[in-house]
What we know:
The complex is a heterotrimer.
Chain A: H1 7-15, H2 27-44, H3 46-49, H4 80-116, H5 118-133, H6 136-147, H7 151-178, H8 181-188, H9 193-200, H10 202-229, H11 241-250, H12 255-282, H13 285-292
Helix pairs in contact in A: 2-4, 2-12, 4-5, 4-7, 4-10, 4-12, 5-7, 6-7, 7-10, 8-9, 10-11, 10-12, 11-12
Chain B: H1 11-16, H2 20-48, H3 53-57, H4 60-63, H5 66-75, H6 82-94, H7 108-143, H8 148-162, H9 165-179, H10 203-209, H11 213-250, H12 253-260, H13 265-303, H14 308-317, H15 321-349, H16 351-356
Helix pairs in contact in B: 2-15, 7-8, 7-11, 7-13, 7-14, 7-15, 8-11, 9-11, 9-13, 10-11, 11-13, 12-13, 13-14, 13-15, 14-15
Chain C: E1 4-15, E2 18-30, E3 35-39, H1 46-54, E4 62-69, E5 72-73, H2 79-85, E6 90-93, H3 97-100, H4 107-119, H5 123-136, H6 142-146, H7 155-167, E7 173-177, H8 185-202, E8 205-210, H9 213-217, E9 222-227, E10 230-236, H10 237-242, H11 247-255, E11 303-306, E12 310-313
Parallel strand pairs in C: 3-8, 3-9, 6-7, 7-8
Antiparallel strand pairs in C: 1-2, 1-4, 4-5, 9-10, 10-12, 11-12
Helix pairs in contact in C: 4-5, 4-7, 5-7
Amino acid sequence: MKISKNKTAKIAKEAKPGNSNSIWRQPLAIVGVVTIGLWVVAAIFAPWIAPYDPLSQDADKFVTPSAKHWMGTDELNRDILSRVIYGARISLPYSLLLVVLSAAIGSIIGGISGYFGGKVDAVIMRITDMFFAFPAIVLAMAVAAALGPEIRNAVIAITIVAWPVYARLVRGLILNAKQNDYVTASALLGSSSSRTLLVDLRPNLSGPVFVLAALEVGNALLLLSGLSFLGLGAQPPAAEWGSMVSMGAVNFDRWWVGLFPGLAILTAVLAFNFIGDALRDALDPRTAKALRD
Amino acid sequence: MEPVLTDRFSPMKFFRGTGFIPFIVKRILTSFLLIFGVTFIAFSITQLVPGDPVAANLGQSAYSDPEIVAAFEKEFGLDQPVPVQYLRYIQNLSKGNFGISLSSKRPVLDDLKEYFPATMEIALVAVVLALFIGLIFGTISAVTRDRLPDQIIRVFSLTGVSMPTFWTALVAFYIFFFLLGWAPGTGRLQPGAEAPENVTGLFTIDALIAGDFATFREAFAYLLLPAIVLAIYAVGVLTRFTRASVLEILGNDYVRTARSKGLSEFTVIRRHVLRPALLAIITVAGVAFASLMAGSVLVENVFSWPGLGQYAYRAAVGLDLPGIMGVSMVVATVYITMNLIVDILYRVIDPQLRKGDQ
Amino acid sequence: MSLLKVKDLTVTLMTGSGPADAVRRLSFELNHGEILGIAGESGSGKTMTALSILGLLPYKGKTSGSILFDGQEIVGFKAEQFRKIRGKDVAMIFQDPMTSLHPMLTVETQLTEHLRHHRKVSKDAARAKALELLDTVKIPDPASALTAHPSQFSGGMRQRIAIAMALACDPKLLIADEPTTALDVTVQAGILQLLKDLRKRDNLSVIVITHDLGVLSSLADRLLIMYAGAEVESGITSQILTSPKHPYTQGLIEALPDSGGSGKNLIAIEGMPPELGKFPSGCAFHTRCRFAQERCKQDWPTQVHFGSQGRIYCTVNPSAHEKTGQS
C-alpha cells in the first residue's frame, strides 16, 4: 500500500479551477473572441462598413474627429475610420499567415530534432539557442530592409526570427512522449518509427503548438506593425495600422492621427492574448508549464 | 546508524568537490561559441537575402559611376567572395576590430561606444522599474488568486504586453510633453547643452561623477519618459512571471510548514516564498533586459533617443553589414552574459541545486 | 476534560469535478498526554482531518461539524485566529522531511522564527531555546547545526529538526503526519522512540497519522481506523490489534507482515480504495466487504460499541463475522 508523497499538493493541484474550465467559462476569453470576431467582420465587409474609400483624398486635411469623420482625417485628407477598418484586411491575415508559417517551419525542425536526437538534435538546438540570443527585431529589420520594404518581405523577415520557439516546444514534447508508454507500446506492436511519430504523437503535439501559436499571434501583429511603423513593412498609401501610427508620429500634435490606428492594434493584440491565455489555462498543467518555460 | 551530516558546508569542497570551477569554465566557453554563432547567423542571413549595400549607401549619381562603385566595394571588402568576407570579419573581430560602418563611415566600435550607453541607460531604468512593479503586483496577484485584485492585475499585465510600444511612446509623448508639458522633450539633453565628461557614457552617472547635479536632473528628466514607456512591456512580462512562480512555490511542502507555524501571511510570503521565487524572477528580468535593449528601436525612434536602436535602424536600412553585426553582437552578448550570470548565481545561492549537482 | 473533541467533522474539498467530501461525519476525542493513531489507506481522509484542525486545508477547502480544542470551537475560525494557535498550541510534522523544510533558510531561522513571532522572545533567548531543542531531539553538535541548511542533513536528521521545530513553542498538541514513511527502516525506530520520550517527558498529546499499523502498534494508546473519509473502527490499540471487529480492520491486520497473515500490503482485501469524489454510498466499504448485504449500499453504517472504548461502524451484525484464523 503505497501512499503518494505529496497528497495535499496533488489535491490542491486538482482543485485548481483552470483544469475543468473550458475557455468558454472565462469571461476574458469571450471578450477576446468577440473582439476578434468584430475585426474579422470589419475586414470582410470593409467596403460596406467603411463610410469612405480608404484612399480617397476628398475630405479636408486634419479634420478633428466629428460626426462626419468619427476619427478625423489625416495629412492627405483621408478618413481615418475607413482606413482603420480597411487596415484589418492587412494586419489580421498577414499576422495569421506569419504565425502559421513559423509554426509549420518550427514544428518540422523541432520534430526532426526530437525524433532523431543525438548529434542532429544537438546541432539544431545550438542553432535555436543562437536565434534566442539574437535580437529578433534587429534581424527582422535587416532582412526586411535587404528584401525591400514590402509587407510580404516583413512577413518573411519575422518568420525567420519567429520559428525557434515552436522548434523548442515540439522537440521538448517529443522527448517527453518518447519516454511515454504508448510510444513504446506502439513500437512493440511493430509500427514503424515514422508512423509512430506522425500518427501517435500528432494529437499530443497539435494542442500545445496551437496554443503557442495563439499566444504568438499578438506578438506577430506587434512586430509586423512595428516594422511597418519603421517603414520596413507595408508601404503608403496602403492603410496599415503600424504605418498609420507613424504618420501620427510625424504629426504628433494631431493626436487622432496616431491614436486610433494604435488602438486598433492594441485591441486586436489584446484579444488574441486573452484567447491564448485562456487556451493555455485550459490545457493540462504539465503541458502548460512546457509552454511557459 | 544513520548518517549525521551528509554534506557539511565547506568552501573548499564547494569550489572543488561540486565541480564549480569546471562548470563556470564550460559555461563561459559555450557563451563564446554562442556569440560566435550569432555572428555566423547574422552574416549568412544577410548574405542570403538579396540586397545591394552599395546601392543603399551611394547616391543615385555615384551609383551609376562604375569606378566609384568599384572603389566603394574595394574599400569595404565587398569585392571578395562571401566566405572570405566572413573569415576576414572574424579575423578582425578577434583583434577587437568590428569593421567600418558603411552608413556612418566610422569604426563600428566607436559607434557602439557612443550609442550603447544611451540605450543602456533607459533599458537599465526600465528594467529596475519593471522588476519592482512586477514583483509587487505579481505577488499580490498570486496571493489573491482568482479574486478581484488578481483579475484586475491580470488584465492590466496582459494589456501591458499587448501595447504597441511605438504607439505607447507616441501617446505618452503627446500627453506628457505636448499637453501637460511635464516631459522635457526628445533627445538626451536640451539642444546645445553640453554632455557631462564621458566616463561611463550614462549621462546621469557621469553627471553625478562630475558633481554636476543640474545636468543629472536634466538627464534624468529626459530619460524618464522613454524608460517608462520601455518598461511597460517588461512590467507585463514580469508581473505574469512572478505570479506564476509564486503560485508554483506556494504549492511546496515547505510553505505549508511555514504556515503551520502560525507566521503572518506577509512573513510567509516574504521569507519563505519570495526568496526562492526571486532567483527565477531575476533570471527573467535579465533576459527581459536584453530584449528591452532590442525593443528600444521603436521607442528611440519616437523620442529621437540617440541609442543603439536608432543606430540599428540606420544600419538595417543602409544594409550596413558591419553595423548590423555590431549591434547584434552587443545585444547577444548582453543576453548571453545575463544568462551566464544568472546560471552562476543559481549555483551559489540555491543549496538544493548545488546538492542535486553532485 | 479532553484536549481535543471532534464531532461530526466533515471536510469538503474543491476538486476538478466539483466539491467532494474528503472527511465524513468523523468524531473522536484525544486526552492530555495521550497518543492517538489514525490509520487508513491513501485518500482515506487522515491528512485532511489533521489539516482541518490547523486550518490549512487546500485551496477552497471547507470544514463543518465541531472541533473543540482546549475548550475553543475551531470550526468557523478566521485565518487570523488560526494563526494564533498554529505553531504555538498545535504543531505539525509532515511526511517528507526532504521537502517540508525550507531549502534556503538556516536551521536556526526555521527553528526560531515562530518562537520569536508567538512569544516575542529575544534573538539570543530564541537561540538558546533552539540549542536546547536540538539537544532534545538528539542532533549532535547543535551549535554548528544551527548555521547549517537542511540539505546538509540526512532524512532522519531532518525529521528530527522538523520535530524540534514543532516543539519550539511547547505545543499542547502535536500532529505527526506519516512521520516515518519517507525514512529508512533503521531510522524509523529512532523517530518513534523520540515521540514516545517526548510524550513521557512533557505529557504531550500526539496524533500520529499513518497508513502503517506497524508504526502505531507500539506507539499509540488508541487507534482510529478510517476508510473513505469516515471512521470504521476505534478503540484501545492492543484490543484492535488482537481482536479487530470490523471486516476492514480485520483485513488490514491480516495484511501486516508479522501478524501471520498471508503477506504484506493489504492482499487480504480485494479491490482498491475509492478515490475522492467517488466514495460509494452507504457504507463505503461495501464494494470490498465479504459480508456486504443489500442494505449496506444505502444506509450509513450503524455505530456498535464494544466494552468501554471500542466502537465500529457496521450495519451487519458484527457477531456474525467474528474474526477467524487469528494468530
